[in-house]
Design a protein that fits this description.
With about 325 residues, the chain is of the alpha/beta class. It has ten helices and 14 strands. α7 packs antiparallel against α8 and α8 packs across α10. It is globular, with a radius of gyration of 19 Å. It starts with 5 loop residues before the first helix and ends with a helix. The chain binds zinc ion. The site of zinc ion has 4 residues, from loops. Zinc ion binds next to loops.
């Protein structure tokens, strides 16, 4: 496939020229919805394909100033209702997303599919639940929902993200827990839900729309920024990316960062970063070299120009160092 710039791609979609996805079009407006600021946060629904849209979070850490709008959410407009993918990082953002959806269709949100239970993707769930949406997620998240870390994360967020996260914000479990590949059809649109954890989290799900060859990749793919690794199982994450690289994907909506029509190279960047982290930190752990000097000795030049390198790379390396210490034993 010919590669387009993002702007050119949107133009192509707006003009209805996209060759692979025209056949089964659903009636939705052609124009990209103009941005509207609510309490200083801009959110613009951007068209992905005939049926799919997304909003793009900021490349930043969550804060009161940005309402925790640091992750993406997708939505798919079917003749029978709207399927949302991820609920954003606060109830206010979820309401904002609902307002963007309302500009495009009066149909109700029937489902919210959760790619994983990190705060920035799920603190808006209660707003969709209140509208009657059915929440679908991978069953491995149940353990996290009952954990001290989920409770502590919420307590910290109530301070750091106040007033957007407060005493009324709660963790919402799924109505439907899945434990294997699952197909969902809404209004004739097929959604393939593919578990890919434990990678970024135990409960990682990606959502693939075969009719438009669109992949909602959750946090398996970070585009144009350094991934947040945290407690991830990076070995399995790399394997999952190898699996995703075999999908027939025209467009990727990542969990963070802009829409990609260069699916393979973006997935490869995340994979290469994880492989590099693991290799460097495995050497240090094997040689019992202290973390600080090992970190200083690594040549980071391939990645240090990417956004959030300064904010997260050292922590990613440290978590990987600890993981490698356990793995090399
Ligand atoms: Zn995440």
């Amino acid at each position: 496939m010919q590669f387009f710039t993002h702007r050119a791609l949107l133009l192509v979609l707006a003009l209805g020229l996209w060759p692979a996805v025209q056949a089964q079009s659903v009636e939705v407006p052609q124009a990209v919805v103009p941005s509207v600021g609510i309490n200083g946060v801009n959110m613009t629904a951007q068209r992905v394909s005939t049926v799919a849209w997304y909003v793009e979070g900021l490349s930043a850490m969550g804060s009161s100033a940005n309402q925790n709008f640091i992750s993406n959410a997708g939505f798919v407009i079917t003749p029978a209702g709207v399927v949302v993918i991820d609920a954003l990082g606060s109830p206010a953002l979820a309401e904002h997303l609902l307002a963007e959806i309302r500009k495009l269709t009066p149909l109700p949100v029937t489902h919210v599919i959760v790619t994983h239970y990190h705060a920035d993707h799920i603190y808006g769930l209660q707003s969709f639940k209140a509208q009657g949406a059915r929440i679908v997620a991978h069953g491995a998240a149940r353990e996290y929902l009952q954990s001290d870390s989920a409770r502590l994360r919420m307590e910290i967020s109530r301070q750091e993200l106040f007033p957007w996260i407060d005493e009324t914000t709660r963790l919402v479990p799924a109505d439907q827990w899945i434990d294997g590949p699952t197909e969902l059809t809404v209004g004739g649109v097929r959604f393939l839900l593919q578990p890919v954890g434990p990678s970024h989290t135990p409960e990682d799900l990606v959502i693939y729309l075969p009719q438009d060859k669109v992949l909602f990749a959750g946090d398996l793919v970070f585009r144009n920024r350094i991934p947040y690794v945290g407690q991830a199982d990076s070995g399995h994450w790399i394997q999952s990316l190898e699996t995703l690289l075999t999908f027939d994907t025209a467009l990727v909506v990542p969990g963070h960062g802009p829409l990609s029509n260069e699916a393979k190279s973006d997935m490869a960047l995340t994979r290469d970063y994880l492989v590099y982290l693991r290799n460097c930190m495995a050497d240090a752990a094997t040689n019992m070299e202290p973390f600080d000097s090992a970190y200083e000795a690594v040549n980071w030049s391939r990645f240090e120009h990417l956004p959030l390198f300064g904010a997260v790379n050292r922590m990613n390396a440290y978590n990987t160092y600890l993981l490698m210490e356990r793995e090399v034993k």
